[in-house]
Amino acid sequence: MQKQEFKEQVFILPLKHKIVRDLKIVEETIGELHIGFVGYFDPSASPIDVYERYSVDLESVAWNGADVKDLLAYTEKLDDIEEATIRHFARQHDASLTQTITQ
Fold it and tell me: Could you tell me the superkingdom of the organism this chain comes from (predicted)?
């Protein structure tokens, strides 16, 4: 069976880091990445393997309005962003499938 392609979507990934404040370790949000992507779904793949069932093409990765996709590729962090985007797309798609089935 052919993979199903979905229109370009935007996923907002909050960036956080841990700091010590008042002798406690807390997470602080330092900004957001706006990730533009096209998602693909392969219904013939095993539902257990999310990376076989879902894939994405990253179109853009923006930080404060500037595209930083090439910078992330250079620092080898683009794979982490792609994995987070696949997991987001899988959760979103599975939720819409579940909602369709229950209606």
Answer: Bacteria
